[in-house]
Design goal:
By secondary structure, this protein is an alpha/beta fold. The chain has 8 helices and 10 strands. It folds into 2 domains: about 80 residues, Helicase, Ruva Protein, domain 3, CATH 1.10.8.420; about 140 residues, 3-Layer(aba) Sandwich (Dna Topoisomerase Vi A Subunit, Chain: A, domain 2). The longest helix has 16 residues. Bound molecules: zinc ion. This is Recombination protein RecR.
Amino acid sequence: MIETCNSILKMGFQDGSRFFTFLFNDFLLFKERNGIYLYPEPITKLMDSYMKLPGIGAKTAARLAFFTINMKEDDVTDFAKALISAKRDLNYCSICGHITQDDPCSICQDKSRDRSIILVVEDPKDVISLEKMREYHGLYHILHGVLSPIEGTGPEDINIPSLIRRLQSEEVKEVIIATNATAEGEATAMYLSRLIRPAGIKVTRLAHGLSVGSDIEYADEITLLKAVEGRREIE
Ligand SMILES: [Zn+2]
């Protein structure tokens, strides 16, 4: 069975929640073959693409695919161009590993920044968060992951060798380790500290603690432990 229709008539889940039906202006809807409803191929391809994104299941992919085909053609073109540009025009900085259009990145190129301090983070998104703070004026190094024996991630699998090379060639006096307060983040911080400290470079760790407005009652153990460890004297 192949259905077409002249206007949007119905949109919803048929047969419980198993089949999504969508009647669209002169558009091939779905065909029934051996009792299975199939989407037209362009929609299937779009859904497959959306399902490659994190946290997107079949239902959300279908919703996004149908939303996309209802968008203005110009908006869809801009969307597609943005996807291609983000992939094609962006690279990782050869010094710090941050995501950038130019190599080295604008932070590494910025002569006004304090080149004696490097702040080590897991992910490029962490740099954006820290930069929003406007309080830090040193350099960064992005690991692109953390050490994880369970997942088989060792020092060579993340951006650690390039950090060590940097410390040998640049005049760095302090390395601030800002990996997340997870078991892997803590293990990575410990590993880096033991690796860097013998070279006479100061290694510090961000004090992780309770977020503003959070109740101690609801804080997990790692947060509480870090909050106590990172305590400061009240002036
Ligand atoms: Zn850089």
